[in-house]
């Protein structure tokens, strides 16, 4: 009886790791086949006319493929999400690109979060050090504001922000809501830049992210991120006032 229980627990442990292992294998295959070379501005320039034609002739199908590719890139934590956002703005226009990109990015981020939470939940609960438990408690107290800040500020890699909430036990609803809202400003800005990218693609000028994303855009996003921490600061101020009045 004990042996069968042990085998069942082993199988359960293996199953928990399968989603994360599938993600790692898919990411390895992506680089093995050299697909990263298609997620560049130069690739967008080289294939621009063909892509415009496909969007004009098969808009619905193009949107579905865009969402699936974007969600896959985010879920696999691959480089190229910013390029895809710019490409979406270039191909679909500002408003349509913003909407579908937000949905795709939220979907991909949620799938990675769920895979990480499934694989590491028991391990983290069993081995979490006291400092990690304190960090988890503090993060959960202000999870929405912290996540909103991490989503808005461009200094944190997107895949890191997908994994940290899974490690710290943030609930699915808060994760999805903060992700959905938090990526709206950046997506809108990048899609807007992409919408005006066609003239640059048609020119012979060299292309790079630095040439299309200005310091003013980055500063504006950092400002929005700092605003997201105001509820945390307000709560801390109220708490300190309550403590000092005693």
Helix content: over 70%
Net shape = globular
Percent range for β-strand residues: under 5%
Rounded mean pLDDT score: 76
Low-confidence stretches: none
- Main β-sheet: number of strands, strand sense, barrel status? none
Structural class given helices, strands, pairing? mainly alpha
Report the order of strands and helices. Answer: HHHHHHHHHHHHHH
User: What's the count of strands?
Assistant: 0
Number of helices: 14
Rounded radius of gyration (Å)? 21 Å
Distance, first to last CA? 59 Å
Written description of the protein model:
The chain has 246 residues and is an all-alpha fold. Helix content is 83%, strand content 0%. The chain has 14 helices and no strands. The protein has helices at residues 2-32, 41-57, 59-75, 81-92, 94-127, 130-141, 143-152, 158-167, 172-182, 184-195, 198-202, 209-212, 215-228, 230-244. Helix 2 (41-57) packs parallel to helix 4, helix 3 (59-75) packs parallel to helix 5 (94-127) and helix 5 packs antiparallel against helix 10. The mean pLDDT is 76.
List key phrases describing it.
0% strand, 83% helix, 246 residues, 14 helices
Secondary structure: elements and pairs:
Elements: H1 2-32, H2 41-57, H3 59-75, H4 81-92, H5 94-127, H6 130-141, H7 143-152, H8 158-167, H9 172-182, H10 184-195, H11 198-202, H12 209-212, H13 215-228, H14 230-244
Helix pairs in contact: 1-5, 2-3, 2-4, 3-4, 3-5, 4-5, 4-10, 5-8, 5-9, 5-10, 7-9, 7-13
Describe what is shown at a glance.
This protein has 246 residues and is an all-alpha fold. The chain has helices at residues 2-32, 41-57, 59-75, 81-92, 94-127, 130-141, 143-152, 158-167, 172-182, 184-195, 198-202, 209-212, 215-228, 230-244. It is built from 14 helices and no strands.
């Amino acid at each position: 009886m004990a042996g069968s229980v042990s085998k069942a627990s082993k199988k359960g442990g293996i199953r928990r790791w399968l989603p994360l292992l599938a993600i790692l294998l898919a990411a390895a295959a992506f680089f093995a086949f050299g697909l990263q070379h298609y997620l560049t501005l130069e690739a967008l320039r080289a294939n621009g006319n063909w892509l415009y034609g496909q969007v004009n002739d098969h808009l619905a199908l193009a949107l579905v493929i865009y969402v699936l590719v974007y969600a896959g890139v985010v879920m696999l934590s691959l480089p190229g999400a910013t390029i895809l956002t710019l490409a979406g703005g270039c191909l679909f226009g500002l408003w349509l690109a913003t909407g579908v990109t937000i949905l795709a990015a939220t979907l991909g981020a949620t799938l990675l979060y769920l895979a990480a939470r499934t694989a590491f939940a028991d391990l983290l609960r069993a081995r979490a050090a006291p400092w990690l438990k304190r960090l988890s408690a503090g993060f959960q107290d202000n999870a929405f504001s912290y996540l909103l800040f991490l989503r808005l500020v461009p200094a944190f890699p997107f895949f890191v922000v997908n994994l940290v909430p899974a490690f710290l036990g943030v609930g699915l609803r808060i994760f999805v809501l903060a992700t959905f809202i938090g990526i709206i400003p950046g997506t809108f800005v990048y899609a807007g830049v992409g919408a005006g990218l066609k003239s640059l693609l048609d020119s012979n000028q060299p292309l790079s992210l630095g040439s299309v994303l200005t310091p003013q855009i980055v500063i504006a996003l950092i400002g929005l991120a700092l605003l997201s921490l105001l509820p945390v600061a307000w709560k801390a101020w109220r708490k300190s006032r309550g403590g000092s009045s005693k």
